[in-house]
Amino acid sequence: MDLRPEVLKPPRVEVGLLGWLKKNLFSTWYNALLTIFSLAFIYIVLRVIITWVVHDARWEVVVINLKVFMIGRYPREEAWRVLAGLGIVVFLAALTWIFRGAKGSPVKRWLMIGWLLSFPLIGILLRGFSRENRFLPLVSENVWSGLLLTLVLAIVGIIASFPLGVLLALGRRSKLPAIKVICTAYIETIRGVPLISVLFMSQLMLPLFLPPGLRLGTVMRALTGMTLFSAAYAAENVRGGLAAVPIGQYEAARAVGLNKVLVMALIVLPQALRTVIPAIVGQFISLFKDTTLVVIVGLLDLLGIAKAVTGQREFIGLHQEVYCFIAVLFFICCYAMSYASRRLEKVLGVGER
Amino acid sequence: MQKEKLETAEDIIICQNVHKWFGNFHVLQGVNITVKRGEVVVVCGPSGSGKSTFIRTINRLEEHQRGNIIVDGIELTNDLRNIHAIQREIGMVFQQFNLFPHLKVIDNITLAPIWVRRWSKEKAVQVAMELLERVGIPEQANKYPGQLSGGQQQRLAIARALAMQPKIMLFDEPTSALDPEMIKEVLDVMVELARSGITMIVITHEMGFAKEVANRIFFFADGYFVEHNTTEEFFINPREERTKSFLSQILTH
Asked: Are residues A148 and A259 in the same domain?
C-alpha cells in the first residue's frame, strides 16, 4: 500500500449550494430557527423599502432639482466651469488608473505634477478672475453651494489639514520645549472644543488676526476653521503612528549617517504614516460628514440646499425623498474613501514585517 | 614627540576614562580602550554589564558624560559636525538587525550613499550589488527585508553598513537573535570582513569566531574593561578571577 503523503486526498467536504446552506445556515436546529427569523425580518424590511422607493416616493423632486443639489446657487451660465473641473479630475484619475502598474516611470512623476497643479487650476476655474473678465468672470465663493461646496470644503480641508497635522505631531514630540508646549497646547485646545464653536470662532475671530487689507469670505473662514480643527485630530493620529516606529529604526538611520531631517523624512514618517492610514482616513470621512455643520454659519452645502429645496412651496412634504437622496450621495463618497484606504493599505503593505 | 604623533595616527579609536550614568545608575565606570587601525577586537562579558552601551557611545547613539572619545583623530563632542563626521566613519550592525522594513533590500543599502554621500543612483546601485554579492544574497535585491531569513537579514544589515565605506565596523551581538543554523552564515561574512583589514569591534559570545580572527579580546564587566589580552593568552592565562569564572561559564558548553 502506498502511503506517501501526496497520495492521500484531502477529506471530502460537502460542496455545492446545498452543502453550503447546510453548513452555514442550517447546521443546528437553533441555527435553522435563526435563519428563518432573519429571512422573515429581511423580507418585511425590504418590502417596505422597495414599495416606498418604487411606488410611493415622488422622485421628481430630485430630478427637477438635480442641478440645484449639485451646484446650488452657482450661476447657471457658468456651470460648464464646474463640469470642466470635474473633467480634469476624471481625466487625471483615469490616467492614474491606467498607469497604476508603472512604478517609478516618468509618467508617474508627470501625473503627480498634474495632480498638484490641478488644485489651484480648478480653484481658478471655479472662482474666475475679476467681474469684468470676459472668459472667466468672478464667481465669488460665497455663492458656491450644494455638493460643489461640500466637496470643496472636504477636499481642501483634508489636503490642508494633513501636512499641518504631521507638523503638529512632530512638534509635539520635539525636544525643544517651546515648540512642544505650543503644539501640545494647540492640539489639546482644539480637541477640547466642539467643531461648531470652532466654526463660529473662525467666522468672528479670524478677521482679527488678518492684516486689515485682507478680507476672507464666509467660505474661506469656514474652510480655515475646519482645517485647523481637523489638523489637531490628524496630529494625534500621526503621533500614534510615530510612537509605533521602533527606536531601533532611529538608531539604524542615524548609524548610517542620516541627519535628523532625513531620519524623519526617509525612515520614520513613511512607516508611521502607513500604520495610521486607517485612522487618518476614518478621520477624513468624519471631516467630510462634518462639513454639513457649515449650515450654522449660513453656508448652503449639500444639506443646506436640501433644506432649502424642501422648504419650497411646490416640494412641501417631500423630505424623505430629498434626504434619502442626500444620504445616498454621502454614502457613495464616504464608501469610496473607505475603499480607497483599504486599497492603499494593501498596496503599501507589501513589505510588512 | 614625533613618535607620539605617529602612535595617535595608528590608533583609530581612543577612549579615555569614559563615564555614563542612566539616572543614578553608573553604567560606564571609566572605560579605557585603544584600538589600532585594522585591528579586530572582540568584547565579551556578562549581559547587563554595559558593553552594549559602551559600543554605542562610540558612534553617539549614546552620549558619554565624562572622558574622551577620539575616532580617527576627531574628538567626539557635542559639535554636530564632529558627530556626523564620526558617524560617517563608522558602520554598525545591531542585534535586532534594524533594517528598514518599508524599503527593498537594494534600497536599504543605497539610501545612505545617495542621501548622505550624494552618489548617483547608478553608482549606489552598482556598489550595493557588489556588496550583496559579497555577503552572498544578490538574488534577494528586489525583495523586502521581511521576506528574508534571519541570517540573510543580518547579512543585509552588514552590507548596508558597508555601503557607506566606513573605516570602522561595530557589531553589537550580531548573532544573538539568530536561530543556531543561521549563525554560521553571518560569522562567515564577518570572518571575511575581518581579514579584509577593516577595523572591527565585535561584541559577541562566539568564542570560535574570536579565536579565528580577533587580534585581542577584551573582558567587560561592571561598567569597565576588567582585562584584555591577545587572543591566545586570553583563553590560556586569564589574570582576573572575574574573567576566569566568566570563561568557565561560557566555555564549558
From this structure: yes
